[in-house]
Every structure is written in C-alpha cells, then in structure tokens.
Amino acid sequence: MSRLKDRLINLNISFNKEIIRFVIITVLLTIGFTVGAILSQFYPLFIIYAIVMVVFSYFYFSRYKSMERKQNDKDVIEFVNLFAFFRIYLKNGFGVYSSLKEVTNFASSSLREKLIQLTTEIDEDKTIAPFIHFARHFSDLLIEEMMVSIYQMVDDGTDSNHLIQFELIYDKFSELQYDAQLKNKDRGLSNITTSALVGSAYLIITITLGVFTLIGEMLNGI
Q1: H-type helices in the chain, by residue range?
Q2: Other beta carbons within 10 Å of 52
Q3: Taking the mean position of all CA atoms in its chain, how far away is CA 135?
Q4: What is the DSSP string of 28-87?
Q5: Residue 83: CB partners within 8 Å, gap ≥ 6?
Q6: Is residue 137 within 8 Å of 98, Cβ to Cβ?
Q7: Are the CB atoms for 86 and 29 separated by under 8 Å?
Q8: Confidence grade of residue 8 (pLDDT, cut at 50, 70, 90)
Q9: Is the pTM of this model over 0.90?
Q10: Distance between CA atoms of 114 and 68, rounded to whole angstroms?
Q11: Whose CA is closest to 21, among 51, 75, 72, 60?
Q12: Cβ neighbours of residue 48 under 8 Å, at least 6 residues apart?
C-alpha cells in the first residue's frame, strides 16, 4: 500500500481520493449485482460480478503505469528545454550548483520538486550519488550520462573537457527527443486517419444493413 501511495504522490494524485473513488465504485457494483441477482433469481450473476470486479480492479490500478509513462515523457521534454538554459548559465560563468538553482525557477511543479531534491542532496552529499538519484527519475540512460558529466564539472570546473562532453551528450539527447516527438505526431495522425476510416466503414455497413432490412420489410409486406 505504501508503494502505491508513493506512486500517486509522484503523479500528484490524492491517495485518499483514489481509494475513496475505488471503494464507492466497488460498493455501487456490489449493490447493483446483488439486487439484480435477488430480483431476477439468477444467482450465477455473482460469478459475472466476480469477473467484473477482477477486470475493473486490474484496469483501475494498472492505468497508473500509463500515467507514469506520460509524465516521464513530459518531464523528459521539459528536461531538454531546461538544460538548454543550464548550458547557457554554465557558459556565462555560473557554477554547476548555481546553474541548477537558476533553472529550478523555470521548472514545472513536477520537475521542480526533483531539482530541489537534487540541490538539497548536493548540500548534504558531495559525491556523485545525488546526480545518479536525480537521473533515475527518468528512463533514459543518456540523462544519467549527462548527470555524470555535470558532476565531474563540480570538481574540475566548467572550463574542462567535461563541459564539452556534457554538450555532446545533451545535443545527442536533444536530437533523439526531437525525432521521437515527430514520430509520435506521425503516429497520432495515422491513428486519427485509421479511426476515421473505421468509423466510415462502420457507418457504411450500418446504412447498408438498414437498407436491406427496409427492403426485406417492404417485400414481406407485399
């Protein structure tokens, strides 16, 4: 249960509201199936109820994975945009810590919390651990490589080769994300086109069946 609570907190979803909603829907389904079984005297309806509850529970709680994936994609895109400013701060003489502080001011609530946690951990731990911990909020390994190069600049300074390494990784990562966004847009347009074709086909079939039904009724009338 604590793991579920942590997942909901990361998604900015109220744990109490989610549980209350689940309980209310469960109670309503239970009452509905119970009353239906008693009134109809069809007691196998309870078997259907059990199947419905299993399916409902699965889809209710498994939807968080999709939400986490969308949130991660959103955070990754924002990461790319924010760290473009981070690079500018570095080139203008700001240190790594100061640059992280500055870009935090432009972050959304989701990413701002992660950046604040990063700078807080840096205050307490001068090793690479806070940077790795921050990178593991994301699914892309290139972010971890980028954070390692940022950590190396803490000790060696922004005039070292680590800045060049960071810029190379950042440029590569930014390009990959841009290509991914284009592919997602193309996939979305393709899905819309497919849905329109399926809808049109369904409409044509429905009209055709309606016409044949009407003709059949007219012939029977004759």
Answers
A1: 2-10, 15-40, 45-91, 96-104, 109-124, 129-135, 141-156, 161-221
A2: 14
A3: 17
A4: HHHHHHHHHHHHHT-TTHHHHHHHHHHHHHHHHHHHHHHHHHHHHHHHHHHHHHHHHHHH
A5: 103, 146, 170
A6: no
A7: no
A8: confident
A9: no
A10: 15
A11: 60
A12: 33
Model confidence pLDDT, tens digit, residues 34-66: 888 787 777 777 888 888 888 888 888 887 787
Burial of 77 (0-12, 13-18, 19+ CB in 10 A): middle
CA atoms within 13 A on the CB side of 75: 23
Q: Which are the contacts of 29, defined by CB distance < 8 A and separation ≥ 6?
A: 49, 52, 53, 56
Percent of all residues in the chain with a pLDDT value above 70, rounded to a whole number: 72
Q: What are phi and psi of 171, to 5 degrees?
A: -60, -40
- How far apart, in whole angstroms, are the C-alpha atoms of residue 89 and residue 99? 6
Q: Which residue bears the tokens 């249960």? A: 1
